[in-house]
Amino acid sequence: MNDVRKACFTFDEKEREKSIEETKEALQFLENELKDKFFGGEEIGFVDIAAVVISFWISPVQEAFGLKLFTSEEFPKLYNWSQEFNNHPIVKERLPPRETLLTFYKARYEDHFGSK
After folding, report:
1. Taking the domains of the chain in order of start, what are their residue ranges?
2. SS3 (DSSP) at 41
3. Which of 12, 25, 71, 109 is deepest in the core (most CB within 10 A)?
4. Predicted TM-score (pTM) of this structure
């Protein structure tokens, strides 16, 4: 999700908008591919694990940077998947606290854009 990084840290507004659109295209592809509870069916599989950036990391990033990349309205199946994945007992005990990430990304935002 290199486009997410570009959407967050690019100063150029046109480049940011392009990155947001490219991110949403990738999310739409995944939305269309999701057929069951998880990408692998009823159990968590490799694709689910690889997509943790979507399920867990995008939410605090978009909140800290004031972006709208991943919403339940735009991507309902993917959003439901992310909730199931994040709340799975095995996944839940291994992810860091959301507030810690949010604090980290807000500081990154201030460091990057506060110096502009």
Report:
1. 2-113
2. strand
3. 109
4. 0.84
The tokens of 30 are what?
A: 């995944």
Contacts of residue 49, defined as CB under 8 A and 6 or more positions apart, other chains included, come to: none
CATH number of this structure's domain 2-113, picked from the four choices 1.20.1050.10, 2.40.10.10, 1.10.10.60, 3.40.1260.10: 1.20.1050.10
**What's the count of helices (H) and strands (E) in the chain, helices before strands?**
8, 0
Classify each residue of 66-104 as buried b or exposed e, where b means 16 or more C-beta atoms within 10 Å of its C-beta: ebebbeeeebeebbebbeebeebeebeeeeeeeeebeee
